[in-house]
Amino acid sequence: MTTLALLPDPARPLEGHVAEQAFADILDGKVPDESVAHFLSEMALRDETSIEIAAAARALRHRMIPISAPANAIDVCGTGGDGAHSLNISTAVAIVVAACGVPVAKHGNRAASSKSGAADVLEALGLNLDRAAATAEESLAELGIAFLFAQKHHPALGRLAPIRRTIGRRTIFNIVGPLCSPARVTRQLMGVARVDYLHTVAEALELLGSEAAMIVSGEESLDELSIAGPSQIVATGLCAVSEARIAPEDAGLTRHPLDAIRGGDSAYNAAALAALLDGAPGAYRDAVLLNAAGALIVAGKTDGWTNGAQIAADALDSRAARRLFEAWIAF
User: Fold this and answer.
1) Residues 266, 118: Cα–Cα separation, whole Å
2) Has keyword NADP (predicted)?
């Protein structure tokens, strides 16, 4: 039996090299499950630092199965855990933004805290997840979109799943997952459910060499830009925004109550996404347009919220997004 590694004291912030070695040992199965659970729980209780988040991301990146991607590819995803049980916003945003001519490597998984994750809703709409994984590089290069199923690209996280379920609350890996795109994107729109974590995540992205990023949180503790009210934003690198706070009307959109975008199971959410691609108006469309505008700003496609929302609306109204999705399903 191999010698088990000892973890440092998680009650105190860790230096980068110490943290990275600790997470390497955890991901490589060199630490007993009870020690891992204690380490992750104690770190979460005091709140992880940007240095620790970046270190954990580096360790996971070294162990992921990557794909090649265009240099201008972006990702749109959130940490989850906001408890809003909304429709699949970032998945719809990925399709719309890709239809606007920006390659999108959508990183995602099955539902953890919600009823329908990105993988669940795409599967319900007819996307063959195994085939999508096998052809991700080709679909990203030819169609401008790919779904990177986390379970297939991050095998090192497999052993942690039961430990995280035992812990029963968020850990650093909820934050780290979105920072570890298998496409190694350097531009992304990332949602976090805690406004007070925006700067921490932004600093971690900068430590990881991000070119441009927008980290957002709806003030209702949403891991996306809120259609119900203001959202807080921290932009990094080449991201062409200066706003620290954005509301739907700043993009020419109407506010809607959060209940108007409340989702259900994968079949329910899939029906809503299909209707969106067919031109259905309403709260879901406006939520997608707002977040798509943010993604288009990150991608350098526009520098304005209203213009970004209009570009996204044109992709829906012209049925470009619908045609792209149909081509993706058939790819």
Assistant:
1) 9
2) no
- What would you report as the CA-atom Rg of the chain, rounded to the nearest whole angstrom? 19
Q: What pLDDT digit, counting tens, does each position of 83-123 carry? A: 778 999 999 999 999 999 999 999 988 866 556 889 999 99
Q: What is the pLDDT of residues 145-193, one digit of tens each?
A: 999 998 899 999 988 989 998 998 889 998 999 999 999 999 999 999 9
Q: Does residue 113 have a known ligand-binding role? A: yes
Dig out the tokens for 186 from the structure. Answer: 């350097």
H helix intervals, 236-319: 266-277, 283-298, 305-317
Check the annotation: does 138 bind a ligand: no
Residue 307 labeled ligand binder: no
* Ligand-binding site membership of 48 (annotated): no
Q: Annotation-wise, does 78 bind a ligand? A: yes
Are 119 and 149 spatial neighbours (Cβ–Cβ below 8 Å)?
yes
pLDDT tens profile 271-311: 999 999 999 999 999 999 999 999 999 999 999 999 999 99
Q: Specify burial of residue 330 (Cβ count, 10 A radius: 0-12, 13-18, 19+).
A: exposed
Element holding 105 (H helix, E strand): strand 104-108
Contacts of 16 (CB under 8 A, 6+ apart): 51, 54, 55
